[in-house]
Amino acid sequence: MPELPEVEALRAFLDEHLVGKEIARVLPVAISVLKTYDPPLGALDGARVTGVARHGKFLDIATEGEAGRLHLLVHLARAGWLQWKDVLPDGPPRPGKGPLALRTALTGGDGFDLTEAGTTKRLAVHLVRDPAEVPGVARLGPDPLAPDFDLAAFTALLAGERRQIKGALRDQSLIAGIGNAYSDEILHVARMSPFKPTRNLTPVETAALHTAMRETLAEAVERSRGLAAGKLKAEKKSGLRVHGRTGEPCPVCGDTIREVSFSDSSLQYCPTCQTGGKPLADRRMSKLLK
After folding, report:
1. Nearest residue to 123 (alpha-carbon basis) of 47, 28, 242
2. What CATH number does domain 151-274 carry, 3.30.360.10, 1.10.8.50, 3.90.1300.10, 1.10.8.60?
3. FPG-type domain: which residues (predicted)?
4. Residues 6+ apart with CB under 8 A from 110
5. Cα angle at 34 between 28 and 40, to 5 degrees?
6. pLDDT at 286 > cutoff 80
7. Can you name the residues that pair with 68 across neighbouring β-strands?
């Protein structure tokens, strides 16, 4: 799933390649991709792209045209991606069972495709006059890389929490942009169990978690800076230290990276670095094995 660093890299890429260009047409291919109907996608015909922003994991393509100022909001979900095309194929795309979900064609012949792998379709596109009209944007918590998201703000945010820290980090209404992969990475850097309750965090641990969060995300953004959209997935995978690396040695201590599986996801961690050497039981309500 694309998370804050990858979406920020896509934002920067589109800011360079898309801003100032004119949209010829936006063509939905998958029925499920478009989540709004007013204004219609045809309102973007002839509009000029004025900017590209990011709200958590949402891309926000701002336009100006005959219909006024509009925003094309894209959430790539778990298996979605953006593919830039210097030259788009001739003719409109044909609906089918392939991964193509939506095509944005520019008047210069270039543009981009939104694709989604797998059978579960969650990629979402909204065309709105104000990004806050999208419920997923309206409920977002603060951006973890925002200049004003300091230790005091982070401490205040966690003060009322009564859940495990892994779940808190992934809650978009609490902190925007962190998903399954980078929460694993942050907790590994902070040397914390994913199941540690937030209410048990000491001031020192809270400070360590805040530092790990900011540094992990900032380093991932920096690694992705300047990369073409097609290279971002490989960069993310190569930069992860524990997530997706079950059975491999921990790059810090050499212990074997372990996994806890759930019905629709899994997490990875290092027992030596994060749980005092004790493996976590691989079940939904995991506790440390005694």
Report:
1. 28
2. 1.10.8.50
3. 241-275
4. 17, 21, 84, 85, 86, 87, 88
5. 80
6. no
7. 65
Helix (H) or strand (E) holding 61: strand 58-65
- What amino acid is encoded at 178 in this protein? I
pTM of the entire predicted model: 0.91
Burial of 227: CB neighbours in 10 Å, binned 0-12, 13-18, 19+ = middle
User: pLDDT band for position 239 (50/70/90)?
Assistant: confident
Single-letter code of the amino acid located at 96 = G
Do the beta carbons of residue 222 and residue 153 sit within 8 Å?
no
pLDDT tens per residue across span 128-161 = 999 999 999 999 999 999 999 999 999 999 998 8
- Specify the CATH number of the domain 4-138: 3.20.190.10
246: amino acid identity, one letter = T
What is the per-residue pLDDT across 68-81, written as a single tens digit (0 to 9) for each?
A: 999 999 999 988 99
Number of residues that this document lists for the chain: 290
Asked, as a colleague might, if the bond just before 39 is cis with ω within 30 of 0, I would say: yes
The answer to whether 83 touches 2, Cβ cutoff 8 Å, is: no
